[in-house]
Design a protein that fits this description.
396 residues, elongated, 11 helices, 11-stranded mixed beta sheet, two-stranded antiparallel sheet, alpha+beta, 2 domains
């Protein structure tokens, strides 16, 4: 066994030392694989960042109530009478004055302009009442102030301000048939709420002709377990044809829809590019075997077996793939880690998020790179193992 391992080590070392002789061909393979990794990781980082933004937004002790069968807030409708019934539901926390911590809200779409492309995009305008901020965690005005009730004033999420222009404090923006003044910037622990614009609910209802209609109701629960009591209350009243779920569950559903779509775009594109990189790897490794035909034949003539030549060639291909994978991972990290972007969410409005790479995603990309290297080196390695001694020596 030891002589066999020594043969494998010797042939592998010879292959590695000869790689500079094929520098440009090897470099092209490394760059092709690196490009595959960059494309794959950019899509995975996008999906991961989007999912983290949404899943971090939901709380287990906050219930969200939508019209029965609605998959998103923008498709939901909740009547004023239903809101009044929900205020008497069990399990809802109350403030110091004994009022339920419940927020009926209106969720609308308005126009915004992206800083990067100067193109229009849909932005979410949310009308909230006095309890709107109280039912959410981590809401803090970081610049300016909160809007006044009854006024055409808005506060803008910190992330939205970063990606869209014309929303700075003091700016006057036209929504619907009215003009609104930006009076504050708020943050929400990096959650999806930072991608929203908030205004006084009655003003939004009036100016958008949505009187007596809401789209969603949020309620802070006494405990996460109180969700079951609220669900039973809604199910028992035929006037409440509504769906109840925790905010955490709602955002998890929203995140999975879009992140799955991003990954379904990224993987096929990366695999298609990987096939191109595979062709390059095959060309490189066949050229490597041809260039070392005399060396391989000489080693075979002095007693080396075919399997060490097989392993040596395959290792060379895997090294090139690993180098491409590492180069692609480093390039993606430098280019996209923490990079901010926005995309359409399930409510057809822009959600601002940051690309997020994780060790698990890098491992996925490296495994794809190694798979390309293994497939690209397998046939040339078999050729090296089966190379006739006479043919190799005569070619020299």
């Amino acid at each position: 066994m030891r002589p066999f391992l020594l043969q494998v080590a010797a042939v592998t070392l010879i292959n590695i030392k000869s790689m500079p002789q094929r520098f440009w061909l090897s470099l092209s393979t490394v760059m092709a694989i690196a490009l595959v990794v960059v494309v794959l990781l950019s899509f995975l980082a996008m999906a991961n960042g989007f999912q983290q933004t949404l899943t971090s937004s939901g709380a287990d002790d906050v219930a969200i109530v939508l019209r029965g069968g609605s998959q998103a807030e923008i498709n939901s409708t909740v009547a004023r009478d239903q809101v009044r019934l929900l205020e008497e539901a069990p399990g809802i926390a109350r403030d110091a004055d004994g009022k339920p911590l419940l927020s009926a809200e209106l969720y609308l779409v308005v126009d915004g302009v992206k800083r990067s492309s100067q193109t229009k995009a849909n932005l979410p305008l949310r009308g909230i009442g006095t309890a709107g901020a109280a039912v959410r965690k981590g809401i803090r005005i970081v610049e300016g102030r909160m809007f006044n009730t009854g006024a055409n004033e808005i506060v803008v999420g910190k992330a939205l301000l970063r990606e869209f222009q014309g929303l700075e404090i003091g700016q006057v923006v036209p929504f619907a048939t009215s003009r609104w003044t930006v009076v504050g910037i708020f943050e929400a622990n990096g959650s999806v709420f930072e991608s929203e614009i908030w205004a006084d609910l009655p003003v939004v209802q009036s100016l958008f002709n949505r009187n007596n209609i809401f789209q969603t109701v949020r309620a802070r629960l006494q405990t996460p377990a109180a969700l079951d009591a609220l669900q039973r209350f809604v199910d028992a009243d035929p006037r409440l044809k509504l769906d109840v779920k925790s905010e955490a569950a709602y955002f998890a559903e929203q995140a999975s829809q879009t992140s799955d779509l991003i990954q379904k775009l990224g993987w096929p594109l990366s695999i298609t590019m990987a096939l191109g990189a595979l062709a390059g790897a095959l060309n490189t490794m066949y050229s490597s075997v041809a260039a070392r035909a005399a060396e391989i034949a000489t080693l075979r003539a002095i007693g080396f077996g075919g399997f060490p030549a097989f392993i040596g060639t395959l290792v060379e291909s895997l090294i090139l793939a690993a180098l491409g994978g590492l180069l692609g991972s480093i390039a993606t990290t430098l280019a996209f880690q923490g990079f901010s972007a926005s995309t359409l969410g399930a409510s057809f409005t822009q959600v601002v998020f940051s690309f997020s790479l994780s060790p698990a995603l890098v491992i996925e990309a490296l495994l794809l790179a190694l798979a390309v290297g293994f497939a690209g080196g397998l046939l040339p390695a078999l050729r090296a193992a089966r190379l006739p001694i006479v043919a190799g020596l005569s070619g020299s």
